Each structure stands twice: as C-alpha cells, then as structure tokens.
Amino acid sequence: MSEVVKEKITAVDTVTCTIDGQQITVPRGTSVFDAAGQIGIVIPAFCNHAKLKPVGACRMCYVEIEKMPKLQVSCATMATDGMVVSTNSQQVREGRKAVIEFTLINHPLDCPTCDKGGECDLQDLTFDHGYDDSRFGFDKMRFIEEEKRDTFDDLKIGPEIVLNRNRCILCYKCVRANKEAFGEYDIGAFERGDLTEINATPGGEVSNPFSGNLVEICPVGALTNSDWRYKIRVWLTKTVPSICNFSGSGTNITFYKEDHKNFVYRVTSRCNDAIDDGWLSDITRYGYQIVNSESRLKTPLIKKGGKQVKASWDEALAVIKKHMGQIKDQSGGVCIGGLISPSLDNASLYSFSKLFRTVFKSNNIDFRGDYRYLPSVTDSLFTIAASQPFSISDIEKSDVIITFGTDLIREHHNEYLKIRRAVNFYNSTVYSVNPYAVKTADIAKSEMVYSPGTDELVINGICLVAIEKKLVNSSAAAKLKSKISKLSPGVLAKLTGLSKEQFEELAEAISSAKKVTFIVGEIVARSLDRDKICAALSNLNKLFGVQDKGQLAVLSRYANSKGAQKLGLSATPYEIVKDELKKIWGEYPDCQPRNTDAMINLMKKEEIKGFITVGANPMRLYPDRSFASEGLEHVDFLVACDMFETETTELADVVLPLCSWAEYDGDYINLEGKVQTGKQAIKPKYESKAAFEIMELIARQLGAKLFENEQVKNEEIEKLLKLDSVLPWPDDFLKIEYEKKSSQDGYPVPLFICDDPHHSGHLTEKSPSLLNFSDSAYVELSKGLAAKIGVADGDPLRVESPVGKIVVPAKISPVLNSDVAIIPRNFSSTQTTSLLMRKKRVDSVKLTRVEE
Amino acid sequence: MTFYSPVLTNAKEIAGHDKLHLFEFVEDEKQYQLKRYLKHGGYAAWKTVLGKMKPEEVIEEVKKSGLRGRGGAGFPTGMKWSFVPKDSPKERYLCCNADESEPGTCKDRVLMERDPHVVIEGMAIGAYAIGCHLMFCYIRGEFHHCIERIEKATEEAYSKGHLGKNIYGSGYDLEMIIHTGAGAYMCGEETGLLNSIEGEKGMARIRPPFPAIEGLWECPTIVNNVESLAAVPHIINRGADWYRSMGTEKSAGTKLFSLSGHINRPGNYEVELGFSLQKLIYDSNYGNGISDGKKLKAVIPGGVSTPFLTPDKVDVPLDYESLTEAGSMLGSGGVIVLHEDTCIVWTILKLIKFFRHESCGKCTPCREGTGWLEQIIQKIEDGRGGPDDLEKLDSICGNILGRTICPLGDAAVMPIQSTLKDWRDEWLYHIEHKKCLVKQDFGF
C-alpha cells in the first residue's frame, strides 16, 4: 500500500461499528479483533499475531455478528459500517469452550515439566474459557521417535531450538513468521489432519538468524530453546527493559533476571512499533549470554615481568597513574591516544572524551576502530552522509526502497526485516544494488550486482541516464552533466558490470517514487573511497530531490554510533559540538586531531606513547591487522578495558574489567537519533566497572575530576544532545574523478570481511548459543567459484592476499552469484583482518585448494 | 477394453437427443483426438468467441444461460466470472478444478479421458471472458489416464493454433499449464487448490478475499469445475436460450450423475436438472433398481459430503433447490445407493475415516474433531459404545458445523448429523445391544 493510499484510508475511509455496545470508528481494513483491542476488549486467540497476516486457524477468536448466522473469526473479519459485534455472547462462549476442548484433546497435560508453564497462552485461555473436565476419554495422539521411546518427544530441530510436537497446537505462527517476516523456509508443516506436525525441513535445521523469534511467539511449549530450557520458572524472574547492544537500531528488549544469583536468564522482545515490530535477531536474543560468561575478565590485570597477573583496582590504577602521569608530564598529553567502542552508552563516551580533552588535553580519540583510513576532517562527505536523518518507520511507508552497498542481513537485521515487511505488507518495491548478491535480493524487484569498487560510477550512471531520459529538473541536469559527463552511461555500464537499462530502471524508480528510502550501508562505509561515493550520493540526492520525498543516509552500524558522533567522540567533532564543548569546559585542546589511522601511524613513530582502548579491539577489527599490531606493539603503555581477554588486551600493560550494558543504566542513541535507555538488570559481575566510572577514576588518579556528581554529567550530555547534528550537503554538484584501478595481479577474487549473520563484532563469540550457530571462520563463495577452484562445501581453502594467508573451510553460499569471497571477522581463532590492506579500495585474494 | 475406465454412460441415448450434449461423443473411441473433435464441431465456439465476441458478451451469455457451478456449490458461473475486477492491473488466472476426489463421483474423469478437447475449449473461453492469458488445469494426481489425455490434447491444441500466441490471428495469447495433484482431497477445495499450485501445502485459505479478487499469487483467479467449463462451448454454439430451455427455472441445463452403490446399473448419466431421483435409481435406462432385489435404505445424493436421504424422500427432482428442500444437497452429483442390509454406523465410520484422513489440519475443529468423531464411532461400531456417546456425537458435530475455514468440516459432519436424526434407532441399537441391527452375523 503506498503512502498516499494509506493516508487516504486514515483520512477519509473509516468505518464505524459497535462492539459489545461501544461504538468505534476505525480505518477500513481493520479487523474486528484489532478494533475491539482499541477499546480495550481483548479477544482470546492463539494464531493471531499483530505483525502477521490472519489465517483464522485456531478459531479461538470467534465473535457473533448481527445478521450472520455463524460465528465469525474476528482476526480475519474486517469491520464494516454498522456492524454489530458481540464478543461475549452465550454462543461465543460456547464456541470458545469447544475450541479449547478440541485443542486440549491431544495436548499433553505436562504443564509441571513444561518450560512454558506460567506464560502459556493455552494454560491461560483454558483457565479463562475451558471446561473443568474432559469429555475425551481416549488415548491422546502421540508423536514418539521410534528409537528414542521418549514420551517427551523432544527433537532438536536447530542449533538452539527444541521441538515437542505433542504440545504443538498448530497455530502455524512459527511457519508464518518465518515466511512472512523473515523470508526463511527452514521450518514447515508436514502431514495433514491431526497428524500434522511442525518440523524442520527434511534434512535441514532451523538455523536462520531470526529463529529465536519462533520460540518466543509459540503460544505453548512446543518450541523451546536451550537458552531457557529447564533453567528457571518464569515467575521466579523479574523483567527489566533494555536496548539491544549489538545493532544500530536499538531494538527494544526485556531482560529476565534473578537477583539472588545476579544472573540474566533470557532476553525477549519488547515490541516498539516505531523500531522493531517485536522481532529480534538471534544476535540480540542470545548475545546477552556474554553477560553471564565465565570467561569474563574478573579483576584488573597488570603486566609484571612480561606476564599479565591479577591485581586489585588500586594497584592497577596506581600503575596507570605512574605511567600515564609520566607520559603526560614528560612528553605531553598529545602523546596519549584512545579508542572507544561505539556500543557504549552516552555517559561512558562523553567521560572518555572529557578525560582526553580536559585532562590529557589531547585530540587523539576515535570511536571508529574498524574502518580503514578514515579522513580526519569533520565535514568529509562521508560524515555528512552518515549524519543525515533517517526514520525506521518510514521504510514501510516508502513505495521505493533502494539498498545500496549494504548486506543488510549481516549489518542491520532490524532494517532487513522492515524492508521485508514493507514488501510483504505495503507493496513497496525494493532494488538491491550491491557489489555482491545479498539475501535481501529475494524480495527485490531487481537485483543489480556491480563490480566491487565501482560504487560511485553506479550512482553516476543513474544520474546520467536520468538526465538523458529527462527524468529530472533540466537546469539541475545541465549543471550536473558538466561535472560528471566525462564517462558516458555506456562506458559506466561497462565499467560497473551493469547495463544502461539497469541504470534506467533505477532512475525511473527514484524519479517516479512518491516516497523513497535510500539505504547506504557498511560496504560503502568501509570503502577506502567512501568520500567519493558519498559525493556521488550527494549529487544523486540533489538531482532527484531524494530527501525532499524520502530519506537517504549511511546507516550507523553500532548501538551508539550516533551518540558518539553527537557527543564529539571523533578526533574532529562537528563545529557546533566543538563550540559547545568549549563553552561547557571553558577549554578545548588546540592540538592536531588524530583519528584511529593517524594514531596508529604515530604509534609506529613512537609519537604516541600511551594508549587507552575501551571496549574496542583494533587488533581484531581494524581492517589491516599488521598495521594495527605494528602500531600497538610500539606503544609504551597500553591500557585496555574490555569484558573479555582479547587480541588487544593481550598486549596491554594494564587490563581493566569492563561492565556489560546489562549492569548499569545507560542511554543509547539509535541510528534514527532516538535516545533510549537500557536499564540495569544485574549488579556488575566480578570486579567489573562501567567505562564512565573507570574514566573518572583515571582522571582522579591524575589529580583531576571529570564531574562533581552525576547530575552535572547528565546536564553536560543533555546540552550536547540538544544540538542539531545533521550536517548540510554541499550546495553544488560535485565533480567525481575517475581513477582507473588495476586489479592486483595474481589475486583475482575481491574480498569482503564482515559480520557473520549470527555474530556482531568481537564479543558475541562468547555467547554459547551463538557459537552453536556459527563458531569459526569460513570463506563464503558462490557455487560457480567453488566449482572453478574445485572445492566442495566444507573443504579447506587457502586464502592468500598480498599481506596475509589463512586456511578456512569453504562455505558454498546459496545467494552469491559472482566471484567474491566473504569472510567473517568474529572469531578469535582466525585473524581474518590479517588479509586486509588499509589503503586498498578493494581487497582481493587468491583462493587455492588445500591438497590433502 | 476400449476405455481406461469402463464406466457405463448414456451416450447412446444422448446421440439422438437434441438437448443432452456433454456425453454425446463419450463412447466414440477417437473423440479424444483433435481430428475427430473438430469433425464433431470442436473449437467452433472458441473461434466464434475470439472472432465475434467481447469478453463481456461471453460473460453475459453464460450468465443468461443459467449455468451453475457443477463442483458442488452451484454458484452461477457467469456471475463468478463477472466478479473479476475489470480495472485491476494484475494478471488474471483461470484454474480448471479437475481434482475430482469426492467419493462417489467420477464424471469429470470420463469427460477428461474421452473428450479432453471440450474441457480445454471451455477453459479457453472462460479465460478469454476474464482476460486471462495463463490458465491452469489442476488434475488429480491419481488420474494418470486423464493427465495423459489432457496433455496430449493440449499439445495438439497448441500445434494447431487453438492455444498459444495470437490464436486464429485474433491477437489473443493464451497459455495453459497442467498441474497435477499429489493425492489430497483438500486440493479439490478451491483455495486448497490455489495453495497447491503456488507450491504451498494444500490447505484452505480464509475467505474473503475470494479468489476472484485475490487468488493465485494474490491476483484475480477463477476456479471452475470441469463439467461447468465443458458446458460452456455448447452454450456458445447453441445459445443461452437453448441451455435455459433445459432443467428447471433456477437450475438450468443438464448435469452428470455418477450412480453407484447397491444398484443394478451403476454408471454416469447425463440428465436434465430436475430429473427424478426415483427414476434415476429405478428406470431400466438408468439404475434399473436396487441390486439383489433388496429394499432401498438410504441414498447419498451428491457425494459423501451430503446428508443421507431416507427412502420416503427419494421421489425428488434432482436440482439444487429441491434437494436442499429435502434436507440434502445436489453436491457433485455422486449418487450412492444403499440397500437394506447396509449398516448405517459402519457406513458413517467409513466416511469419517475418510474425512479424518483428508482433513488438512489447518483449523482446530476439523483437525481435532474428525479424529475424535472417528474414535467414538469406531467404539460404537465395535460394540463398546456408551449411553452418552450419541449426545457427545451431536455436540461435537455441532461444534464443527459452520465453524471451519472450508466446507470440509461441514462435509464431515452433515452426513453424521443426518443419520443421527433419521437412523437414531440403529445407532441406539448398536450401543444397547453391542451389535448391529442389520448385519445378523456381525461378530464383535
């Protein structure tokens, strides 16, 4: 449904009906079920789900409607004018009783041993609507695995999911959600009649990146996960509202915790229609397990005689005082640098910035430790593109959605699902334009795979064709044409591997769209030429007026990337942020600002002697491992704060245990710029401390004080958050130079290092559940490329770049269709960033079979 | 043996008849070939339609003829076609429902095996009427011979330009896909059929939206029975008024009845609607009486989904209205005759086993209820019935009737309800005496 149609419905097309004597006016197309819900009348149901299409399978939501002789299912009956509905008549009550009776005849009464007990829809609705006794009197139908002879019939159907078919009441929500919301087909219904069973597809397992949702929406205990099974009864836990710490969109979650054990037992969704529709990725759902991990850093560590040993906080801080004090006094604060994770809360980020800028008087800070060779200027086009406003809920209101340079299922799960929803429920049209084929393409009208490294040429192609076809304003067209017409669309098509028709299709789509969402992702953000690509995007935006009728932005990847930008955590903050900081602090260091790349360079030159990392792991994630390690190994004094021992803490002179986000209250700004609070669920585990506490402690060791009290801190942050953080695009069209790049001889396959669909960054490998899905690195490649090399799925493959070499198993992708290699960066067992070169536009590798 | 399924038909009688038409050539061994079909006037209607008629005129003609759906529900065919939104930019599809699975019914099978081209021609005209360029013929998987014949006929039709691109130079394109089922009764239900074509599990879809608005791949789709479509070329050739002149006022035309059970001449008979059921059973040209000279006990008039008729109700005209009045339904025309030695409980047990087996499992009452009913009925049949079992059956049937997504739930319970009413003494006898009223040597 296009926005126009939708608006029309809300504005004009409403119906008024009467439900249980109350009149209500709702948009046409609203179900009786939803209409009743709006006036607080809860109709019981098993199969209805607010975010799925109605199927009317469970028959629990019967209502009586005047002039209709039969009971109607309210979930699939649309309210009409003058309709008179009764949700609680004698006939309705009898109908529900009958459904409960039917549902229970084959349902085991094993509530005392069922994990769903206490939060089971069937339990609750039986209590409310069922008979007190049973009229059945036969043996219940039983699914029993022959070899197992297990009356519980527990089948493991995926890395995490356990199925009990006997408990299943066949509401089909799991199958429907999988298909309609996630676009996955790894669970299905088999057989028919009362033998119908839900199960994994034959020979397969339920392992899609959203499979945890199936457990959450199961109305009974048929689908459970090993995360929660037999660990605790739900009524013994308390719930705490929080925010996902692994995604840029800040998916809303609920922690289930138990105070005596100081333990988080699970995470479920906390549906926020504006953000997440109540669907969580498995990373969000199972990633919390890192909080409980036994392998967390328990105490500070200090290096003694080349070995890290346990120490108290006082000892550790004393060492920091000594060394950092020394560097500060002897070489100056400009010789100290720091890198913080953009997943940390506002208070931690701001304290970090204040520590460096007011105590060390240094501008050597950054929060983007996993992006290669970032420019150190504030108003780089990339920064501008990343600062643009974006609204998640506008995705489904857009009739045209373009995903450019983004592998959503590995970067932005939530937006991936939103786009699916836009297509399945609102008839939006998606164009997937990427340097390799991505999973999003299955719902795209067209998938366009361009040659890696030609991103800006694709955009130029679209612009030029739009000009040629007179799809855009002619004066703007003339201006732009003079800047970019050096290469004709035909040549661009050849260079990018696309066709002129494809440029034309995109140009038509953008120009004819009523509302556009143009999503730019990590493939662009991680590119060496990100500024050039963003310049092309700036031209496109201006030419088509994209933002006048929609949105265009580079999406923030991490939980608080937006916060880091707003609070000035980059070496060169926005001018207004800088001015405000000057005002708040009464000072601002005037030394040269240095970002990650510059800092590492200076480490090599021994100009940076002290370095603090907070939650960041550049040794793993910086896209050039040898560059990062050469730098960090040169640092005289390295302090690393993290939840776990990492490749970076290994090098550190002092290691400090960091709290997880579940252990303190924190504010996070999602990719839309929305501030959300994650509440403290449990007390800090072991001796860990929150980053803002650690920053304050370090400051005080050095004789300074960051904040008098918490209120002051919050007020300062508040002032910064008030500032407008959207940077304006350049006024003029920009010239985009084309440099011919020759591919590296002998390394023919373009390489992309990114997140596994079940992992995010370097922390999630500590979640046992996520490891069950994926536990080590691999190289994903297309069927064609695998055949060319002569490897089968799982065969070891030697991956060589000019700078590094790893051996990992091959994984044949059902999606990829061109010669590229995709390798995850999430596993400490394989240092995959060692293949990368920070100054390369497109990394490339040579793949060879490992002979036995 | 000349035919794969040697079903008796009344083709000979029809040959000299100026009205009956569906079975006119079904005893002609070569009728399935295009050459013979053309000789008998085949594809003339299709040529007329493409050459001279607008789609609306076709719909109007079929509406005027009074043709009603022969699959069981009896919905006016022309009206169904007119429900396809005229201004929809989406593709439209026509599906021929050739998944004939109603026990007791085998009429479509004869048409497809022996006169396949008339089915294709009817489909083509229907497709043209609704603006469809891709039509499906969904054939029951077990009908190997039908599939073979329809496939062959389709090939022939394509090769001689009756299907394909720019048919007869009219500029109209029409493609046809033959889709075979995999043995589910459910797929004969129109929404189950659509799911099956889409590659989904054969399960009913909730209505509305009706298929004419949102069917295959959410596009307007018309699903018609084989027999309904086969009548269309005749209507075009001979005119709506001719068709109207047959049958009764509200049930126009002719209908195929499959007569089976305890009958002397089981077979497929084409008669005008309104024909006497009594005559169909006893007339020597048709059923020729009950087998072994026994007395009649019950008649299932329209396939096993329809309520049973007691002997006193058998003198009824076979048309939609009269049978509804008599407490049953015309259904698909599968007339099953039961004589006096038939145990009603045993018969119902057979039926409920079938419905339990074929329940798709989507909605609760049918999925769970049919299994429960079977277990109770089996218990009664086995002589283990209890005094409250009949009330339980009444109650469960009531809880299924009208409460399911598709008519399969109703179909499963209506025969039970009718026998619980009309043969309650027999049910009670089973429970009280732990044996059968009719089967003297019935061992438990």
Explain briefly what this protein structure is.
Chain A is of the alpha/beta class and 852 residues long. In chain A, helix 3 packs across helix 4, helix 14 (455-468) runs antiparallel to helix 16 (489-496) and helix 14 (455-468) runs parallel beside helix 19 (530-544).
Write the layout of secondary structure elements.
The complex is a heterodimer of chains A (852) and B (444).
Chain A: H1 3-11, E1 14-19, E2 22-27, H2 32-38, E3 62-65, E4 72-73, E5 84-86, H3 90-105, H4 121-129, E6 154-156, E7 161-164, H5 173-181, E8 187-190, E9 197-200, H6 212-217, E10 223-225, E11 238-243, E12 252-258, E13 263-269, H7 282-286, H8 289-292, E14 301-304, E15 307-310, H9 313-330, E16 336-340, H10 346-360, E17 365-366, H11 381-387, E18 400-404, H12 408-411, H13 413-426, E19 429-434, E20 446-449, H14 455-468, H15 474-484, H16 489-496, H17 500-512, E21 516-520, H18 522-525, H19 530-544, E22 550-554, H20 561-566, H21 575-585, H22 596-604, E23 610-614, H23 618-621, H24 625-634, E24 637-642, E25 654-657, E26 666-669, E27 675-678, H25 691-701, H26 710-722, E28 749-754, H27 768-773, E29 779-781, H28 783-789, E30 796-800, E31 805-812, E32 821-824, E33 844-849
Parallel strand pairs in A: 1-5, 16-17, 16-23, 18-19, 18-21, 19-20, 21-22, 23-24, 24-25, 28-32, 29-31
Antiparallel strand pairs in A: 1-2, 3-4, 3-5, 6-7, 7-10, 8-9, 11-12, 12-13, 14-15, 14-25, 26-27, 28-33, 30-31, 30-33
Helix pairs in contact in A: 3-4, 10-25, 11-19, 14-15, 14-16, 14-17, 14-19, 22-24
Chain B: H1 11-15, H2 34-39, H3 44-52, H4 55-65, H5 77-82, E1 93-98, H6 107-114, H7 116-130, E2 134-139, H8 144-159, E3 175-180, H9 190-198, E4 221-225, H10 226-238, H11 240-244, E5 254-261, E6 267-272, E7 275-276, H12 277-282, E8 296-300, E9 317-318, H13 320-325, E10 334-339, H14 344-358, H15 364-381, H16 389-400, H17 408-422, H18 424-433
Parallel strand pairs in B: 1-2, 1-4, 2-3, 5-10
Antiparallel strand pairs in B: 5-6, 7-9, 8-10
Helix pairs in contact in B: 3-7, 3-10, 4-7, 6-7, 6-8, 7-10, 14-15, 14-17, 15-16, 16-17
